[in-house]
Specification:
Oligomer: single chain
Strand content: under 5%
């Protein structure tokens, strides 16, 4: 978001297993209809048709409220539309019902967009305590670093990303996202040489990724 993660904003995917979703208080043909509607909403979300996805999810929620999978996709849909407060509400409720921190990086990024710095830090702390997958921790770290940078503390932002665990020989997408965020911070801090080297290492690993080659050319 413009006020949040900027170029580093997550593009979260919908991982809903539609076949396994249950709708309390609904059965028979209506349940089948809602399950089909949720599948359509997930497809619309994946194809960036957020208005359509939201309408479908709202119609499901009216008949079967508090379904975790519906709240998750609706929260992500609102996040992608810049409706930060509504996204936080849905994704926090999803967290309560599912006991999952999977969307904590998105929640943190919503707080970041709203410049709610204490809430960003608290969400990052919760993520660390939960010790989820390395990918989720990396995503949260990127958002927390971005929040520091938004407040003008580039040193703290750089320090946080530099303190991440050593990467394995085979880099994964979340490692490259962290490298990109760190390279961007180096450039903003005036360290063009380190920024260029890190962008070059990204390009060597994943040639043609995003705007990396443009960034390299600008730093020559």
């Amino acid at each position: 978001p413009d006020g949040g993660a900027g170029k580093q904003r997550r593009r979260p995917a919908s991982s809903v297993d539609v076949g396994g979703v249950t709708f309390p208080g609904v059965a028979g043909e209506t349940e089948t209809k809602l399950r089909r509607r949720l599948a359509e909403a997930a497809v619309a979300f994946e194809r960036d048709r957020f208005g359509e996805a939201y309408r479908l999810l709202q119609s499901i929620d009216r008949l079967a409220p508090d379904v975790p999978e519906v709240l998750e996709v609706r929260g992500l849909t609102q996040y992608r539309q810049g409706r930060w407060a509504q996204a936080i509400k849905d994704l926090r409720r999803f967290e309560e019902l599912s006991d999952s921190v999977e969307q904590h990086p998105v929640i943190a990024d919503c707080h970041r967009a709203r410049r709610e710095w204490a809430a960003v830090a608290e969400t990052w702390r919760e993520l660390g305590e939960a010790s989820p997958s390395a990918e989720l921790v990396e995503e949260g770290r990127i958002v927390m670093a971005g929040a520091y940078a938004d407040q003008g503390d580039l040193k703290a932002a750089i320090r946080l990303l530099e303190s991440a665990p050593t990467v394995p020989r085979k880099l994964k997408p979340h490692h490259l996202r962290r490298f990109y965020a760190l390279a961007d911070l180096y450039e903003r801090a005036g360290d063009r040489k380190r920024a260029r080297r890190l962008f070059e290492s990204i390009d060597a690993t994943e040639p043609g990724l995003g705007d990396v080659r443009d960034r390299i050319r600008q730093l020559r």
